[in-house]
Amino acid sequence: MTLSISIVIPAYNEENTITETIQAVAKEVPGLAEILVVDDGSTDRTAAITESMMADIPQLHLLRQGKNQGKSAALKAGFAASTGDIVIVQDADLEYDPRDIPDLVAPIQEGKADVVYGSRFLVKRAGRVLYYRHYLANRFITGLSNLFTDCNFTDVETGYKAFRGEIIRNMILTATRFGFEIEVTAKVAKLKCRTYEVPISYHGRTFEEGKKIGTRDGIAALFYIFKYNLFTSKKKSFTRLPDIPSISRR
Hints:
This protein is an alpha/beta fold and 250 residues long. It has one domain (5-249): Spore Coat Polysaccharide Biosynthesis Protein SpsA, Chain A, CATH 3.90.550.10. Helix content is 36%, strand content 16%. A seven-stranded mixed β-sheet has the order 3-2-1-4-6-5-7, with helices on both faces. α5 (132-149) packs parallel to α8 (215-230) and α7 (180-191) packs parallel to α8 (215-230). It starts with a strand and ends in a 20-residue tail after the last helix.
């Protein structure tokens, strides 16, 4: 049986790419239940463009944040509204290719995984060559996160993450801006989820092209590693503990 899929797209001032992103997701995702675009207080035409596409794509829905609150807040709103058996994060800027989604969800569809990360550092299909300092920062943050979670991730900061819906909808999320990536990794580890990584393509943007993550987000990531691994219990991480089939075998 094919599990239904919800795609959550946080979007802030992405009028140049939102049409192509929505069209690509609608075309490439099997078992698509819904596309939830969360407009995070955009000041451009992101929301208007999304709304204009809803008549032609019945799975498409628009959620509006009253003001810009950051990626984590947008994702939280999207997860709460989702209904799919699998929930996937899709950035609105097409740095991540929706053609990779079938491979991303396959371990969950096959009953092998609860959570799947798309890694930019496994055997790479295609990847734009960009900032070496970002690569070094990512490797450091991933390594430090792994030290606390005892997981061997290669890319905790990846924007492509797929979850069993029950897991992400019950997760209590409190991080701001781009802190979601670290918070969710710590809480997935606490739950002892069956977690997989799959290789993905990555078409990164420059800051001139609209890339939003910066130095302060890297510093915040270090704070979040300590906060969510050392000072946040499993009980305080979920409204209700989801059923994880692997727990009985550990």
